[in-house]
Amino acid sequence: MMSGWAQHLEPGVDRRALLLKLSFALTLAASSSVEASTPPAEALPAGHMPDLRGIWRSEYTYMSSGREEEFRDVHFVVVDQKGRNLNVTSLPHSTGSNVRIALTLDGLAATGTWEERTSPTGYYKGTIYRGAIQLLLTPSMTHMTGKWLGFGKEFSIDTGAWDLTLEDRSMSARTRAGYDLRV
């Protein structure tokens, strides 16, 4: 798996950037032994853009400074793709919150921005949060894992884990409706 990741690196990359990218690869390889059987080079041949459209389960964690506790939030989202650009939009959520993510693919890395409008009746009363996100796509093309970064309620810089897992490749209205208001 490591050699497959190394093949996706730019030839002129400096040593520090190389070590950073390879450490991400090793972390991903260690955490997904099932995925390790398919090397990235086979999963993403040169010039090939994976089709990531579909309904995905989005889950992220965050620390609530006011409640001094870590929470997780789950949304079902639609991933729409135009070339290297992924637009991720949440389906209707039972609490009224919604998430949007804009990503650009570069090999197996997806980098971009996120925005969440929290539940209008929840703890954060409809507050809008924004930030940066970077995810790594597994060789199976069915899971993305990474980190988000953003400003907290008290203007601190916060971070947490964010995962997207493919649920359904269908984009039909009927399929989407089946995920509405699910948590």
Explain what the structure shows.
- The protein is 19% helix and 44% strand.
- Strands 1-2-3-4-5-6-7-8 form an eight-stranded antiparallel β-barrel.
- It starts with a helix and ends with a helix.
- The chain is built from four helices and eight strands.
- It folds into two domains: 2-43, no CATH class; 54-179, Porin (Beta Barrel).
- It has helices spanning 2-7, 15-31, 40-43, 173-179, and strands at residues 54-64, 69-82, 85-90, 98-106, 109-117, 128-137, 143-151, 157-168.
- Mean pLDDT is 83; it is low at 33-43.
- It has 183 residues and is of the alpha+beta class.
- Strand 2 and strand 3 (85-90) form a beta hairpin.
List the helices and strands and how they pair.
Blueprint: H1 2-7, H2 15-31, H3 40-43, E1 54-64, E2 69-82, E3 85-90, E4 98-106, E5 109-117, E6 128-137, E7 143-151, E8 157-168, H4 173-179
Give the total of domains. Answer: 2
The main β sheet shows up as: 8 strands, antiparallel, barrel
CATH topology of the largest domain: Porin
Biggest sheet strand order reads: 1-2-3-4-5-6-7-8
Under CATH at level 1, the class of the largest domain stands as Mainly Beta
Structural class: alpha+beta
- Helical coverage, percent range: 10-25%
Put simply, the count of helices is 4
Low-confidence stretches: 33-43
Q: Determine the strand fraction and express it as a percent band.
A: 35-45%
Q: What distance lies between the first and last C-alpha atoms, to the nearest angstrom? A: 34 Å
Radius of gyration: 17 Å
Q: What sort of overall outline do the alpha carbons produce when their principal axes are compared?
A: globular
The residue-averaged pLDDT reads 83
Q: What order do the SSEs take from the amino end to the carboxyl end, as H and E? A: HHHEEEEEEEEH
Find the count of extended strands (DSSP E, 2+ residues). Answer: 8
* CATH hierarchy: architecture of the largest domain: Beta Barrel
